[in-house]
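Duplicate of #3305? Posting structure anyway:
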């Protein structure tokens, strides 16, 4: 087996791929295909690109149908599904609130009104996948940052599946997906990061094969506001940054898109209600909460 490691920039981070193959790999050609797959997702779903399909939808008049590529429609469908599944804890309609608290491409320093610009996407976004279009029934500022990276990982995975490689690990930032096992017969070892904003270190390792893992946390993307740290994760139920004592949530799922969005949903719900949802879905999930002594862990499934 030959081992090939590739990477490149995307979505303000980097995509990575480790491929084990039983044949010669054209690394340059494969890297180009992976870069194109990640770039296509970024080009459609970024809030940093004014001409992205997401921003076209955001700017469209209320009630007007907007033609969209199948990839972003797939993500919008998944976002609405997980929004309903979580009782609104995951909602992609928080774009204006994200900006009002100083995060994202449209960040501003104005004082945030918890109700400013927020409307639940699960009630106000209509999709028509058969005709490749969507429309809003009220002004919406959609933000796919809680699901698009995971979907990008799945597109990387689809590229390697198409090539027929027997063993690989792909990722973007903290979202990862694996297929098969390493030549030694072991699953891929993935480090779980300790949710400490001041340093990067592992708090544990999980083994991953034929599945995906994603982590949502309050420790990387945060800023000071009125003398206090606020997280980039918005609680759609309050229209304000999350403040429930959770430091991070890690989720295992068949796809990185679902793992990504579900980790955010469970982060918003907290260890109790989030634990109930995770148990009902039979998810492997790890909740890490802040505590005076450091961190407290609550695990379900493989993390128990």
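Output from current build:
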């Amino acid at each position: 087996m030959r081992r090939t490691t590739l990477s490149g920039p995307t979505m303000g981070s980097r995509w990575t791929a480790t491929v084990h193959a039983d044949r010669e790999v054209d690394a340059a050609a494969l890297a180009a295909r992976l870069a194109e797959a990640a770039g296509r997702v970024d080009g459609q779903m970024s809030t940093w690109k004014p001409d992205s399909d997401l921003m076209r939808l955001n700017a469209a008049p209320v009630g007007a149908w907007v033609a969209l590529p199948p990839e972003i429609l797939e993500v919008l469908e998944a976002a609405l599904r997980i929004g309903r599944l979580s009782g609104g804890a995951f909602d992609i309609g928080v774009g204006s609130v994200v900006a009002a608290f100083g995060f994202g491409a449209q960040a501003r320093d104005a004082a945030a009104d918890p109700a400013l610009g927020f409307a639940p996407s699960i009630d106000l976004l209509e999709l028509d996948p058969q005709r490749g279009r969507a429309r809003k029934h009220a002004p919406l500022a959609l933000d796919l940052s809680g699901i698009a990276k995971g979907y990008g990982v799945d597109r990387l995975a689809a590229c390697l599946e198409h090539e027929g490689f027997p063993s690989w690990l792909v990722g973007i930032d903290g979202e990862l997906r694996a297929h098969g096992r390493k030549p030694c017969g072991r699953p891929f070892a993935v480090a779980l990061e300790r949710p400490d904003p001041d340093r990067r270190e592992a708090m544990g390792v999980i083994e991953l094969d034929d599945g995906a893992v994603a982590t949502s946390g309050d420790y990387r993307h945060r800023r000071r506001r009125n003398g206090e740290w606020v997280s980039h994760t918005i609680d759609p139920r309050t229209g304000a940054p999350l403040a429930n004592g959770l430091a991070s949530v890690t989720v295992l799922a068949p796809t990185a898109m679902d793992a990504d969005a579900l980790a955010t949903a469970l982060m918003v719900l907290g260890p109790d209600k989030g634990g109930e949802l995770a148990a009902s879905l039979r998810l492997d999930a790890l909740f890490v909460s802040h505590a005076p002594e450091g961190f407290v862990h609550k695990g379900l499934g493989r993390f128990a």
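Confirmed duplicate; merging threads. The first helix runs from residue 27 to 45. The chain has a mean pLDDT of 89.
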